[in-house]
Amino acid sequence: MLSINISSFFFKVPSRTNNFNPRLILLFFSPMASSTKVTVEYAKSGRSSCKKCDEKIPAKSVRLGLVSKHPQGFDQTKWHHLDCFPFNSDFVSSVEDIAGFSLLQNKDKETLEKLISTEIATLQKVSDADSDKIDRKQKETRAQEDSEHELSKQKRLKLSATEEEPVLEIAFSISDVRDTYKDAKLLPKWRAFQTIIYLEQGDGRHASSKIAAFDFDGCLANTNVRRVGADAWSLMHPSIPEKLQSLYNEGYKLVIFTNESNIERWKKSRQAAVDSKIGRLEQFIKVAGVPIQVFIACGLSKIKPEDPFRKPKTGMWNIMKKQFNSGVPIDMDQSFYVGDAAGRQGDHSDADIRFAQAIGLKFYVPEEFFEKET
């Protein structure tokens, strides 16, 4: 996938001498040119909002995004309607270099090409006499962007980043707990409730105000959907056992929240899917050498109504919080979640980061959390 660097502000160019092209100066000397990119795609749903007008971006409509590097290491995208995109503050030299442009339909390519051409023509008309005005404009734009960033941060703290509907209250009853998941038998100490399978408390899986939560596949364990079996996994990072043991010794409750739709999907081989998933988890816990609470969401994706336990839905967290932490209030400032599905280029989804945002947890990607110096 191609991407281009864009500038975040304009330099003042005193005069055009020695055949210098001011637009090239803007492109190659901006300090933000290496950290911010432009991407275009069709909106996957109607949940995202334009960062300029705050209106919803309709599903399947063209949206432009500013992609920048989050301090925690993953890419974050600010989506805009086409006519809301801030071309006046961000330089784009060619639509052919915008990530995702080649995937657009021809009519949408033409629309975007005209939009970019118009913007470039406008920039070319800017004279040296207007440079002071441009500086003031860019300062105002940066101040506005800083304000928007702060507002976005406050929204995340208020758990509104995912723009999801209110949390569905789930009535948990011990009479609804089973030692089988549909027609598949579970190992001792594993139980099923609705569409989740969980590992019971006990054996050191204590309650705590501090929760260290993790995804499993692609985060703690290197697995492959084409390989089945309890032994078909390896550690994602060598430092994982030591890191988890350190957290446990610091008083953290360790929890794994993992999606596994194959358990529901493989109706004729459900027992094999259950044995494979639980077997891997039990082997991982032995390798880690530390007690870990586990919740497996077995529901399918893209169904209506949506499964309340499958990430990014927060059903697994809510069950853990209300039923498996002995009533101990959770300190959200000290708790966190680590997952690989952060919506970055190459990630299979953004379910993990949306899960953390919906709950209000600090979020880390595994390479940042397990590879940084301790």
TrEMBL record:
Segments of this protein annotated with the region Disordered: 131-157
Looking up InterPro entries in the UniProt record yields: HAD-like_sf, HAD-SF_hydro_IIIA, HAD_sf, PNK3P, Polynucleotide_phosphatase, Znf_PARP, Znf_PARP_sf
Q: Which Pfam family name is an example for this entry?
A: zf-PARP
**Location within or outside the cell:** Nucleus
Q: What is this protein called?
A: PARP-type domain-containing protein
Compositional bias, Basic and acidic residues, is annotated for 131-153
Keyword Methyltransferase part of the UniProt annotation: no
Example of a GO cellular component annotation carried by this entry: nucleus
Gene3D superfamilies documented for this protein = HAD superfamily/HAD-like (3.40.50.1000), Zinc finger, PARP-type (3.30.1740.10)
Residue ranges of domain PARP-type in the record: 38-118
The superkingdom of the source organism is: Eukaryota
Q: Name one GO biological process term.
A: DNA repair
Q: Which GO terms describe its molecular function?
A: ATP-dependent polydeoxyribonucleotide 5'-hydroxyl-kinase activity; DNA binding; polynucleotide 3'-phosphatase activity; zinc ion binding
NCBIfam families, per this entry? DNA-3'-Pase, HAD-SF-IIIA
Which UniProt keyword terms apply here?
Metal-binding, Nucleus, Zinc, Zinc-finger
